[in-house]
Design goal:
Blueprint lengths: L2 H17 L4 H38 L5 E3 L2 E3 L7 H55 L1 H37 L1
Antiparallel strand pairs: 1-2
Helix pairs in contact: 1-2, 3-4
């Protein structure tokens, strides 16, 4: 049993000891300690699996002397073909890692696209409701029209100022 296993067992014992003391203030502490214990167990299992995989890979690739030159893998001269198979295994691992990373990015992109679509439909609904209220109440419709006019006027002024600044920059740069 490793020292980490012993420490996790001690933490389980501490959590069990906390269960014997009643009290509402301790319920939160007990729940938090249990969450921490669960997180630590998951992380330890993940790390143990990762270390096991790394050891398996190291054993598989042990004895292979690879020289990377000119973009090709050259045999180290042992003549048994272990180098080329090790290189192929390494390349396969890199391709698998790249595919996993791409799958993660594609999943994130799909989630973002779904979120943006949902937000767009929400904004469309808000716009429709504001328009409906504007048609039902002339005062609100007048305010909305004034906002639209002000917005277009601001856009024209901003465009004009930008154009003038651009002309001044071009004149300055030409000197």
């Amino acid at each position: 049993m490793s020292s980490v296993d012993e420490l996790l067992k001690q933490l389980v014992d501490v959590n069990r000891a906390m269960d014997t003391h009643p009290g509402e203030s301790r319920n939160f502490v007990r729940a938090r300690h249990q969450e921490i214990l669960d997180d630590l167990r998951e992380e330890f299992k993940r790390l143990r699996t990762s270390i096991g995989q790394a050891q398996d890979t190291a054993e598989l690739l042990s004895g292979a002397n690879l020289r990377w030159g000119g973009g090709a893998v050259e045999d180290s001269g042992n003549g048994n073909g272990a180098t080329s198979s090790s290189a192929l295994l390494r390349e396969r691992g890199m391709i698998s890692a790249g595919m996993a990373a791409m799958d993660g990015v594609i999943g994130q992109a799909n989630a973002i696209a779904g979120s943006l679509t949902q937000q767009g439909s929400l904004l469309d609904n808000v716009g429709r409701r504001v328009g409906q209220v504007g048609h039902k109440m002339p005062l609100v419709n007048g305010i909305l029209s004034a906002i639209r006019r002000k917005k277009s006027k601001d856009a024209l002024i901003l465009s004009f100022v930008t154009a003038i600044c651009l002309v001044f920059v071009l004149l300055y740069a030409s000197r």
